[in-house]
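Subject: Interface between my chains keeps coming out wrong

I've been trying for a while to get a sensible model of this assembly. When I model each chain on its own everything looks fine, but I need the whole thing in one frame so I can look at the contacts. Pasting all components below, labels as-is. Any help appreciated, I'm running out of ideas.
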Amino acid sequence: MDQRSIGVFDSGLGGLTAVRELKRVLPTENIIYFGDTGRVPYGTRSDAAIVKYTRQDINFLKRFDVKMILVACGTVSSVGLPVLREEYPGLPLIGVVESASRAAAKATKNGKVAILGTNGTIRSGSYQAELKRICPDVDAIGKACPMFVPLVENGYTDGQVARLIVEEYLEEVLKFGADTIVLGCTHYPLLKKVISEVAGSDVTLIDVGAQAAHLVKEELTERGMLAEEDGSVSYYVSDNVENFATLGSLFLQCEIKEQVEKIDIERF
Amino acid sequence: MDQRSIGVFDSGLGGLTAVRELKRVLPTENIIYFGDTGRVPYGTRSDAAIVKYTRQDINFLKRFDVKMILVACGTVSSVGLPVLREEYPGLPLIGVVESASRAAAKATKNGKVAILGTNGTIRSGSYQAELKRICPDVDAIGKACPMFVPLVENGYTDGQVARLIVEEYLEEVLKFGADTIVLGCTHYPLLKKVISEVAGSDVTLIDVGAQAAHLVKEELTERGMLAEEDGSVSYYVSDNVENFATLGSLFLQCEIKEQVEKIDIERF
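Reply #2:
Try treating it as a single job with all components included. I did that and got this:
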């Protein structure tokens, strides 16, 4: 038993889709969430910037003596985590790439998987490399979808604009013949309905935040580090405490009643 | 005569639309441009974050002993500048709000002006207040257009997606009967064609970057501070030196051949 909290962070609020699943599968865990709303989005930044921001995010969460960190951000998991993992021995860092790739390898029947992600994620080739490692026969392509985050953050999760952009980004993916699509950014589940309509019901969509939450459960169970008692969630952001509850509840799919605290991430 | 440089900054690359005009009307001036590409966009941040980022941007440019700063960002001009102006006595800070409001007041025939801007700009009511000050009879409304920056930065400056979003944002503006629309963010001139098609040819569009460049010329002339000889431009960004030349040339409408330097803006 380990009552210490699980740290979760994302470039912004997309990571709350992972918190939602975490609360469902591990209701006794205490969660500390950090959303870097002052510097979102990460997906369009350079690798150097992403690594720097990742280090600051981890350093902030480390202050709470967390027992594990779930990196609920496709871009950080792809670009920042591989570089930084060695800097934090003894602190388990769970990214979204490993668990989602595992789920995709299991789901595909024709061996063709597509990954949708930010520019940073797709540039890194992280999911493709992990898929190849798990299952060398799988053929994977990546497609950068830089408009998905602005669409989601501005409420275009349905309707003609969302549909046109989803159609454009999926054209190549569908031509490729993928039967499994990894939604490689924690914002993307909010576009699931439109993506599914355009891709067709035969295509399996992998929600990376949800998959990562399951991996956290597995790892904590294996290490005998599960918490007991009732869990709580604390929220920290680097900007805009006011907007957090409104936009955040979209991702979390329930009301956020907890206090939200603003911190200066550049100090870490 | 004053050979010192003019400092110009923006949250990202939109400010280059002002540099373009500055180079045209003041070819002998030396320009130092800073684009905060590591923290773009500002328009969705809180006022506190915008003020903090503005201070760092000005502090960076001050190191070059600039004779004047053109704030080529609608959000900074609306939110950061009014708070910070007093911190920099002796350093003329020219924002985009004053000159654009003046141009709009001059252009309108029916006294109805609309301002398109980021969330931060519209929340501030800066253009409306300035218009009221110049011309109390003018009736002005603001419309936040948070999707315009992502559209421009991802190349959607034409076509169906841009048109649908422009139509949505302009609906209220056209119902209001504005005969003059202020493009209150330096990104927006790249959507001018679509905005003009949707608004109709009777509506005058005010390009804030271009207007501000004219005000800079006026102020330097009045103060006897114009430079002679041939002018040059130096570029600084807080991220992504690689993408700068490609995306930047879209805004500047000519190739960027000069060296671009990356700096750590958080140190200022």
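Reply #3:
Confirming on my end. Chain A has a mean pLDDT of 95.
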